[in-house]
Specification:
With 182 residues, this protein is α/β, with parallel strands linked by helices. It is built from 8 helices and 7 strands; from the N terminus they run αβαββαβαβαβαβαα.
Amino acid sequence: MPEFKGAAWDGIFPAMQAGEFDMLADGVTFTEERAKIVDFSTPYVEVNQYLLVRADETRTVEQMKADAQARIGTQIGTTNEIAAKAYFTDKEIQSFEDFGAAVLALKSSDIDGVVIDNIAGLGFMKENEGVFKFAGQIAAGEKLAFVFPPKSTLKDAVNAALAAMTADGTLEQLNKKWGLTP
């Protein structure tokens, strides 16, 4: 029987590297840098990075980039943070402990936009109908995968399951059911 544990995002990769957890399943983006200290499964879905804004925002993502007064936030230690810093090169990005805090800051007008992937952004828009929208896309093609400590014996079993689920269409059905793909 699995035991589920919560952990702070910014410390999760060192914890995985040290073998404190058997598996991480939390919408984790594969990166070469992360792959140096942990193992990844076969990717199960691809996501894109967007700028989430309040529904009444009139600026496009390009206008927000050019606006010296625009305040941008995201979650610390994520590829969203990397994308935010890469796209908004002249801005100090406000990094929050989690996306909930970043979105709350957006809702209360403490910041003007949150760099977030399409899946998480759509979730916040669904939970807060009519409050938020996407101003535009800023990055594409990130692959989400499960994470394991180095040399984990679980990785091969998970990859075999993902391959079987891809072959019979189950993975596509689940990704659609849970809003990971259109």
